[in-house]
Amino acid sequence: MNNGATAAMKASDELIRLLARLAANEGVIPTAWPELFLIRSHRPVARHQVVYRPCLCIVAQGRKQAFFGDRVVTYDPNNFLVVSLQLPIEAEIVEASVERPFLGLVLEIDAAMVSQLILDIDGMAPVSATNSQIQGAMSTSRADEPFIQSVIRLLRALEDPLDCRILGPAAIREVSYRVLRSSQGDVLRGLALSDSNAYRVFRVQRFLEENYTNHLDITSIARNCNMSESTLHHTFKEATSLSPIQYLKKVRLHQARLMMVNAGLGAGEAGFQVGYESPSQFSREFKRLFGVPPSRASESLPGVTAVSKQENQDENGSHQSHTPQNIRFFQ
User: What is the model's pTM?
Assistant: First the structure.
């Protein structure tokens, strides 16, 4: 075994030890950084509906698959996942056990930080999209030793409050830099470049997330996003495998599920809150997407998807709840 392979193996082992210590409880565990979550599962998790925000998904131990349109994307200790747009997809944890639990983390992407990094890398030259095509909203890249070491430094900073506050932002920036230098750097660039199709789709998604309770059709969406209807439909579906209206429906249903599970709303009230006028239509579409009626909404969330019940303390010693109130990724 050469020195490079030995170093990579040692780094991978250190990443497993760090995550096993920091993610002591099963579930999705919040950290001192709102954009960083740790994941631990002692069992495989069957294919289920989830929403991924723009993020990096890194696996230290185990294996996971994401189903996006007609694609199946596998990520594991050798390959990390880059998601450049919010995507309602299906996912499953393929490899996990009590002896060798699934261990991973998710770092949400800070588009402003990525934009600044691109400027720093490219100098002061105008930053523009390299082409008009969507590079791929979900792709994997090789987790090499420099990338793994950057993730290790990020996790080590979590272990000390002062390190977390002082070194944390630089550690997150370093991980983002390593992704920009990887084979999937263009995926991240697309999110940050205002003249890219990926950024245009991101703006449409943001409009839908902010206005999903309103009556919207393809004409009103295109008008508000300054796009023709045909361009909107083609560009959006190329990136997300969904039409804008299909995406809007999934946003509403995922948000309603969170309202019922986290806030205790009944099916009728949750459906009304997210823009459904017909309770029967809401029930039909909820069951079609999640496989259970709204009355059993909690059953559509596998145990590992729930954010860990443990509480974190802020700098003043008070406890903060981390139960998500809006759509975020769920593992």
Answer: 0.82
Q: Domains in the chain, ordered, with CATH?
A: 3-194+306-320 (no CATH), 212-300 (1.10.10.60)
Segment 176-219, tens digit of pLDDT: 999 998 888 887 887 777 677 888 898 999 999 999 999 999 99
Rg (CA), the chain: 20
Alpha-carbon distance 42 to 97, whole Å?
A: 5
**Is residue 202 packed enough to be buried (19+ CB in 10 Å), middle (13-18) or exposed (0-12)?**
buried
Give 50-73 pLDDT, tens digit per residue: 999 899 999 999 999 999 888 899
Nearest to 56 by CA among 207, 177, 149: 177
299, amino acid identity:
E
- Write the CB contacts of 237 (distance below 8 Å, at least 6 apart in sequence): 243
- Measured from the Cβ of residue 31, the count of other Cβ atoms closer than 10 Å reads 20
Count CB atoms within 10 A of the CB of residue 236: 29
